[in-house]
Task: structure prediction
Amino acid sequence: MVDLFPSRALDTAVTRLRTGHTRLNAHLHRLGMTDSPHCLWCPTHPDTPEHLLLHCPRHHSRRVAFLPSLSAIHPHRPTLTHLLGGCTNTTQAFKTLNLTRTFLHKTI
Ligand SMILES: [Zn+2]
Result:
């Protein structure tokens, strides 16, 4: 069976989002590598993992595509912790993380 997703790259992306050590502007700004901590598409919002996964309008269409599957797992709005596999129920965590990985695969 062919692996459709570059697993290692997605694992790295999820780990970076969990730790906050990302290539997003909020982190790069803390390191002095960018002039602004804000999202390039949302000049008043910090470019954080939460913004990328939950709020940035740049990824709205991709987010909308995976929200119905996500709402079957999380009837209430999921948090960043949920999206990164931090659910207390391991089955929920596995399913949610797979959806997040699919979103990231289409986004990054
Ligand atoms: Zn944005």
Summary: The chain has one domain: 7-107. The helical segments are 7-19, 25-30, 49-55, 60-73, 80-83, 90-107. The mean pLDDT is 90.
